[in-house]
Write a structure and sequence with these properties.
This protein is of the alpha+beta class and 316 residues long. Helices cover 29% and strands 27% of the residues. Strand 6 and strand 7 form a beta hairpin. The structure holds flavin-adenine dinucleotide.
Length: 316
């Protein structure tokens, strides 16, 4: 077992969280790609207060931390993640009237598609696009998740965000600096900064007839079923480059069906990379490299990953 974190930190976390804290927890089952190694320390939180306590404790002890939502937009390295992984299951949700609409406040561990379903059943419109998007509200707020021409940017009123070493702040839409699958928070790790953490989000909803909302959501689901493969994956691997679909480029490069180990590029949708059994994170990374290089060679386009590679990768 690798244990880089000090014994004192482990003890403090154990005093606070008791049996919720695990050492050397295998992470693959918490991700939709079903790959990756273990977390040095692993904690499941069920409230935003616990989430805040956990990341504050880790940060002040100098221990690296990573918030895991639905694990649907990440590939975790085979060698795992050093430090603390916090599995976010803080799921409280409430609704309040505000002017002509309704505001939903959701803790960041709430499941996005379950929330979309709940809104539809209450006759509240605005999240139907999210009916088939896996993961948590927190993951969606960070990545500006979207589908069918809509996204979180269109619904977010405010997000409660913890800034390491500074405290808790309320960000409005403008503060999030949203772009296509992009936000200011997505750049923390890339820039080598400790990651900010979304504790909760306020989403704007609009009353609409339940049957209209249900029909819209069913249409979106049917569209998804028609175009996207099943199986273990992270959804779209690459962002769509300007004026192109990543899936079209990978397909045209002749890579549909390409297999490395148990990882394969879907025959149904070339931007979906499937774990067909016992794939490793390294198998998927090799497929990513193959697709990126082939598209660059054939079209001169350098695709950008939509998915985040996290943990202790050998090339780092
Ligand atoms: C089959 C399939 C279909 C998909 N379809 C779509 C789609 O249509 N549209 C779309 O946009 N995406 C889609 N995705 C990708 C994925 O569902 C979204 O990116 C989703 O929003 C990720 O949320 P998550 O909770 O799983 O995040 P995770 O994968 O757990 O984490 C992603 C990143 O967000 C960070 N993060 C998570 N929670 C927090 C938090 N509370 N505070 C700070 N950082 C946090 C993590 O640390 C990590 O850096 C699809 C994925 C799959 C598997």
């Amino acid at each position: 077992m690798k244990l880089m974190t000090t014994v004192q930190t482990v003890e403090r976390l154990r005093q606070t969280f008791g049996e919720q804290l695990h050492v050397n927890e295998a992470l693959a089952r918490y991700t939709t790609a079903r790959v990756g190694g273990s977390a040095e320390l692993f904690l499941t939180v069920t409230t935003s207060e616990e989430l805040l306590t956990a990341v504050e404790m880790a940060y002040s002890a100098g221990v690296s931390y990573f918030v895991l939502g639905g694990g649907s937009n990440i590939i975790i390295a085979d060698s795992g993640i050093t430090g603390l992984v916090v599995l976010n299951r803080a799921r409280r949700v409430n609704f309040r009237h505000s002017g002509a609409g309704v505001v939903c406040t959701a803790e960041s561990g709430a499941n996005l598609s379950a929330l979309a379903r709940q809104c539809i059943s209450k006759g509240l419109g605005g999240l139907e696009w999210a009916i088939g998007v896996p993961g948590t509200v927190g993951g969606a707020v960070v990545g500006n998740a979207g589908a069918h021409g809509a996204d979180i940017d269109g619904q977010l009123l405010a997000a409660t965000v913890w800034e390491p070493g500074r405290g808790v702040f309320v960000y409005n839409r403008e503060d999030m600096k949203y772009g296509y699958r992009d936000s200011v928070l997505k750049h923390d790790a890339l820039a080598g900064r400790p990651r900010r953490v979304v504790l909760a989000a306020e989403l704007q909803l609009k009353p609409e007839a339940v049957d209209v909302l249900s029909a819209r959501a069913e249409g979106f689901n049917a569209h998804r079923k028609d175009r996207q493969p099943g199986g273990a994956s992270t959804g779209s691997m690459f962002k769509n480059p300007e004026n192109y679909y990543a899936g079209y480029l990978i397909d045209t490069a002749g890579l549909k069906g390409l297999r490395i180990g148990d990882a394969l590029i879907s025959e149904k949708h070339a931007n979906f990379f499937i774990n067909a059994g016992e794939a490793t994170a390294e198998d998927i990374r090799a497929l990513i490299a193959e697709a990126w290089n082939s598209v660059r060679e054939q079209f001169g386009i350098e695709m950008e990953l939509e998915v985040e590679l996290v943990g202790d990768w050998a090339f780092e």
